[in-house]
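From the thread on structure requests for the teaching lab: each student submitted one protein with a one-line request. Submission from student K.M.:

"Model Aminotransferase class V-fold PLP-dependent enzyme from Tabrizicola oligotrophica, tokens only."
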Amino acid sequence: MTQLLDLDFVRAQFPAFASPVLSSHAFFENAGGSYPCRQVVDRLHRFYLDRKVQPYGPYPGAQAGGAEMDEARTRLAAMMGVAREEVSFGPSTSANTYVLAQAVRQWLRGTNAAIVVTNQDHEANSGVWRRLADEGIEVREWQLDPATGSLDPEALRKLLADGRVRLVAFPHCSNVIAEINDVAAICAMAREAGARTVVDGVSYAPHGFPDVPSLGCDAYLFSAYKTYGPHQGIMVLREGFGMDLPGQAHFFNHGTLYKRHTPAGPDHAQIAACAGMADYVDALAAAHGVTGDALARNRGVHDLMRAQEVAVIAPLLDYLAARNDVRLIGPRDAARRAPTVAVDLDCAAEPVSEALGRNGIACWAGDFYAVRPLAALGIDRQKGVLRMSATHYTSAEEVSRLIAALDRVL
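Reply posted by the TA:
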């Protein structure tokens, strides 16, 4: 029998559910940024109280601050199954992807190389790669199906056929379509063709931190503020790829992988607070009897999160699919998608999100920087989509409240 997530325990880990400001609304804006867990809040608070000095210096506060930064990198790396040197922090995923693209620009300059991008991506994992055409690098687009929003792996195979593609950039799942792409299969196909892979995990990682060795990608990027943490971007960059790329930081830091592609000084307090995300995963594992090493605990917690999300979001998908005045974007099957649910309405979407706000529902509307996917799906950017996004701490009662509010508003 599948173990169920203890939702009371989970929600007790998030101060927001006791907040007089936030708790008045059912929260369905998780894809824009999740609530931080108390372990992260506590660590950030402690750092600002007792460690907010230049880290690693020869005195207690500096030593403690540096140790907590090291702890965050070490524990997150262990959770994701990678070496600690392969985990880099930056101000955001958009910034991290930009820096990585500049390294690839130098790496491929003057070659007869091609890269593949998709039109299913958030712009952060699309525009920076497309601009490599400025260097004469051919940019090939792996196009989504305009009826379903899906990416067909066979279409990618054709783009890889001539052996010139050196890099494939694609999402684990889109932030509006939400279908979970088969990352392991795509990476294996790219690797066989001699191409590296960069995966935008921003919209998937909130639903389970990645098991990077199983995925087989060369780079995986996601945002800590969407995975219950502080506003940081996290980049897993495998050593074989990262050390091949020209360094983007101070020349004397090029020998250390996690510094090699970090051109700006990191936010010390937020890096240290990221260890709280590992605390949270370990707390969930302990509460549910999940044992083993850090990677095994992460896998077990991932499965618990996903099972909860699939069960909770299915009634919303069924409700929306049954209406004839909305177009549900992405799969109807909850098991095939993240619980990020976008719909195309027969009216402008933002006034609907505002009306839902007056009915006790926190969500939003717009293009969510997914301009290319929406255009490919034939959706007017100015009209936008209504997006309602859940995560593992979302309750069935909150989904029922959302459905009732949609009935009133629509």
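TA comment: The mean pLDDT is 97. The radius of gyration is 21 Å.
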